[in-house]
Amino acid sequence: MSWSIGKEQTRDTAAGHREEKIMDTIMVARPKESEGIRGWLLVYVVALALITIHGMALTIASIIVYTKPPAAGVTSSAALNSLSPLSALLLYDITNVLLAIYAIVLFILMFRRRKAAIAHNIIFNAISVLLLVGWHFTGTKSNVGTFADALPNLVGLWYFLASKRVRTTFTN
Fold it and tell me: Which among 64, 137, 140, 166 has most CB atoms closer than 10 A?
């Protein structure tokens, strides 16, 4: 909705032609137009895609290494069991697949520019960090891996909580 208060003026030239039309306008109660996915929001979307692909690659690799230990340079599966039991691997793989499915839902919400995308991205990033910490304690993530994988989620969490662009982009 746009309200305008203004005054139109036209000027005539010496030859009798109308030269220009000037409108002094004051805009009141004009809603903000939603912006597209660009800038830092686009960087976030690309990073989320890469994180999702990375997570699925790690899930596939963990299954391959568990079923074929020599592929990882391990001579027996007993060595793998001592590092990470099957139950921890299953927890890691199942939750990683669920995160990938949730990421697909996030992409759908973001590209449809739904307001629910804000809350769901906050939830997704918080859950991702909590799962990373949980995976670390079950032995499926190293210290460095936990920190490296948690950092983008922590930045994404902060971005969705603090960004004005996010609030103006996701309006429907």
Answer: 140
